[in-house]
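Below is how a single chain appears once it has passed through the pipeline. First comes the sequence as given, then the structure the pipeline wrote out for it. We keep one example in the README because the format questions we get most often are answered faster by looking than by reading.
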Amino acid sequence: MSTLVLFHLSALLLAFLLDWAFGEPPNRFHPAAWMGSFIQAAFRKRPSNQPALEFLFGAALTVTGAFLFAGFAYGLQMVFINQLSFIIGVIIQAILLKTTFSMRGLWRAAGEIQANLEISNLSEARRLLAWHLVSRDTSKLEHAEIAAATIESLAENMSDSMVAPLIFYAIGGLPLAIAYRFINTADSILGYRDKAHEWVGKFPARLDDALNFIPARITGLLIGAGAFIMRVDSQAAFRIMRRDARLTGSPNAGYPMSAMAGALSIELEKAGDYCLGGGNRLPNLEDIQTARDMLKPISFLAVVILLPVLFLRL
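Resulting structure:
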């Protein structure tokens, strides 16, 4: 095994362990928070009531920001990481890579909602759901609807917050993983359909859809594999994914969400939008716990299947 392969493999495994051991760093030290601040500051300078210019502004912001942050990561690699001792270089690379994905943070956020549902504190569960996981209005959601939205977000974020950044790291190293995280952050901040965001957010939203096309489908398959490990219904995960994955407005979100609906034998419905796993029972607290428990084996499987990609690239 070459030193370069060993370096990237060690950084990937250490980043995985750091995420599960410590979770997210404070925002003042988190590159994703810096990306968000950069995007919001630029957004305030956007042209208004000029769709073509707004679209071009959003495209320029997305591409420029992705290159800036990827270039910063590349510069760190060249100036510091590659010039330091092997062990220190691995540690720095792992810390930076860890900031592109978040499994423990997702696991913890869902756990906080679950804990409040257990004591029937719906108002706090709704607040936490809106704060951590979804952008929809949660003020009128009932117990089963909160559970469904939590499980949906867990499944969808397995792709956005874990599988996709790991894929891009395996393909293009830390700079590409950082670039993906910027584009995904731009979509999460700008990709709304209201008047202020409609045209500015169109380019990052479409680019994010394109980048997540393969990761979302891989995540659906991983959820099926994770269901087998957890001894829930892996066959239904694949069957419901094939049947319902294209029912959502998003070209990607339906794959992990429908796979999770099948694995847990539940119905995941967003009123007026989609119903995945239709005909199954409504989700409950135990289903949130099972979905959370599936995060660890799925994240481990994601690392394992990407190792050959890393070896081939290097």
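The chain has a mean pLDDT of 94.

See the next section for the split statistics.
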